[in-house]
Write a structure and sequence with these properties.
The protein contains 5 helices and 11 strands, in the order H-E-E-H-H-E-E-E-E-H-E-E-E-E-E-H. By secondary structure, the protein is α+β, with helices and mostly antiparallel strands.
Length: about 280
């Protein structure tokens, strides 16, 4: 019993001491006007919009969009880079981005309705045209924010079109991550690795004979290292939209390049931050 009382007494002393230190710190801060920095927890929200309208009896329009919202990111240049594809955003709050989507939707509907009416004569059957833009959070690891942007549209023809953009943002240094921030591998060597790994992630395309390899649908001889990349703890991935390097039937293609393949060329700061051996 005496031991229990002694432990409680010591705990009380530590608690009081801790309170005094905190109070002392707050008092000094109040007297000096010093600002005590607090780390705000990273959060992600989103806004969505889906709407449609009729141009005439044969043509209707559809607009769809999803934008991510980052309440804890305050740096304007970083926000401008995150929303690079949406020009004219001033208010990056949830309400501000929702207002932007409404304006963007109205402008899309108006742009089609205000076209020269002669093109309407080419429409022989009921059609629904559409436009879409969607942001997707891929990951936020080691303060590297990775976002996928997907775009789609259809304005007549045999099929619609779609494409992807990948961007990585360094939240510590408040900037977009470029390929040179990751590796110094020469262009020719990187192209050779991309060609070598082209079939590592199948696109899922099939024909009457079964699965079709990505390499069998290429439209170019050398695969360039584009700006649409992202990464995880194993690989650096390059993402290619339809028609970028292969036929439309191939869809979008993702090519991985392992950290082992890039060994000796990785930026030391990046390698340490990602804990790559």
């Amino acid at each position: 019993m005496k031991n229990i009382i002694a432990v409680l007494a010591v705990s009380t002393i530590f608690a009081v001491s801790s309170c005094k230190k905190t109070d002392s710190k707050n008092t000094v801060a109040a007297e000096t006007g010093e600002k005590i920095e607090t780390t705000e927890q990273f959060t992600v929200d989103s806004v969505k919009l889906s709407d449609s309208t009729k141009v005439n009896n044969l043509l209707s329009l559809k607009y769809e969009a999803k934008m991510l919202v980052f309440p804890t990111i305050k740096d304007k240049s970083l926000l401008d880079s995150i929303y690079y594809d949406k020009k004219g955003i001033i208010d990056f709050s949830k309400q501000g981005l929702q207002t932007f989507l409404n304006k963007d939707k109205d402008e899309y509907f108006a742009s089609v309705k205000e076209k020269d009416n002669s093109w309407i004569n080419d429409i022989a059957r009921p059609q629904s045209w559409d436009t879409g833009s969607f942001m997707k959070l891929k990951s936020n690891t080691n303060d590297f924010l990775q976002i996928e942007y997907m775009y789609s549209s259809y304005e007549g023809g045999a099929h619609g079109n779609y494409g992807f953009a990948e961007r990585v943002f360094d939240l510590k240094n408040k900037k977009r991550v470029l390929l040179k921030d990751i590796t110094t591998m020469p262009k020719a060597r990187l192209e050779a690795l991309l060609t070598k790994n082209i079939n590592n992630i199948p696109s899922g395309t099939t024909d009457s004979q079964g699965a079709v390899k990505n390499s069998e649908m290429l439209l170019i001889d050398a695969i360039p290292a584009n700006d649409n990349f992202y990464f995880d703890d194993k690989n650096l991935y390059f993402h290619y939209s339809p028609y970028e390097i292969a036929a439309f039937a191939a869809g979008d293609i993702v090519i991985p390049v392992s950290w082992e393949d890039l060994k000796g060329t990785l930026n030391p700061q990046f390698k340490e931050r990602m804990k790559i051996n």
